[in-house]
Amino acid sequence: MMMQTSGQISKEAFRGSGIGVIFMAFFGTLWAGIGVMGLQGWGFPYVELAAIITGIIMVIGGISLIQASQKMPNQVSEKGARHLKRIGFWFNMVFIAEGVLIGAAIAICNAINQTDLIPGVIAIIVGIHFLPLASLFQIKLYYVTGSLLCLLALITLLVIPRTVMFGEQHIIAQLSLLGFGCALILWTTGIMLWLYVKNSRGVFVNQIHNEDHQG
After folding, report:
1. CB within 8 Å of 208: residues ≥ 6 apart
2. Where are the domains of the chain?
3. What is the 3-state secondary structure (H, E, C) of 34-92?
4. pLDDT tens by residue, the chain, 215 residues
5. Under a CB-based contact definition with an 8 Å cutoff, are residues 134 and 146 in contact?
6. What angle do CA 114, 25, 153 make, to 5 degrees?
């Protein structure tokens, strides 16, 4: 995930953002796969190919940020290194808590024979997990991402009918809406991170270029 300090470009911000974009690509594509399951074969294979291509493009973007970070000077002080270590610790705690809650939610839904609720409940847990990350990494975008995921899950569970007929095709509407909706939210978040950091790198390079000429 992106590590950013006071809007200042750093090697760690680039590398962390690259990892974040890859995470968004991977999990966004997984959610798209859930949406594909809901389509029950409609749109095959074009929908699947579009999802895979989107994920691949984003992974390439994430890798490009990581590679760019390797060319930047390491300017982390001892105090900064300790701060980054604390961020890493709390990120791991949030990630572990998310995994535990998802496992518990799946077990409870299975126990009460409400397996249809599992995707929606997982989406809510994933959305909630973005809220502490927004504060931890100082990325306000994550507040929007988390809120949208939770809102989408609630609308899907409370408003959208489970199944609909699309022409002659039987579609699991809740699964499709939730899967593709979560995918779109995560992909959009990843692309915004990618573009923001990529543009910031251009500003950083220009500043270095100007300083060299002034020197």
Report:
1. none
2. 11-214
3. HHHHHHCCCCCCHHHHHHHHHHHHHHHHHHHHHHHHHCCCCCCCHHHHHHHHHHHHHHH
4. 444 433 445 778 788 889 999 999 999 999 999 999 999 998 889 999 999 999 999 999 999 999 988 887 776 667 777 888 898 899 999 999 999 999 999 999 999 999 999 999 999 999 999 999 999 988 899 999 999 999 999 999 999 999 898 778 889 999 999 999 999 999 999 999 998 888 876 544 444 344 444 44
5. yes
6. 30
Residue 127 CB burial class (10 angstroms; 0-12, 13-18, ≥19): buried
For residues 193, 199, 200, 201, the Cα torsion angle rounded to the nearest 10 degrees is: 110
Identify the residue whose tokens are 């002659």. 168
First vs last C-alpha separation in the chain: 36
Q: Which residues pair with 165 in a beta bridge?
A: 170
The C-alpha atoms of residue 207 and residue 154 are separated, in whole angstroms, by 46
- Exposed (0-12), middle (13-18) or buried (19+): which is 86, by Cβ within 10 Å? exposed
User: At CA 53, angle to CA 128 and CA 40, rounded to 5?
Assistant: 75
3-state class (DSSP) for residue 9: coil
Task: Report the amino acid identity of residue 21.
Answer: V
- Predicted model pTM: 0.87
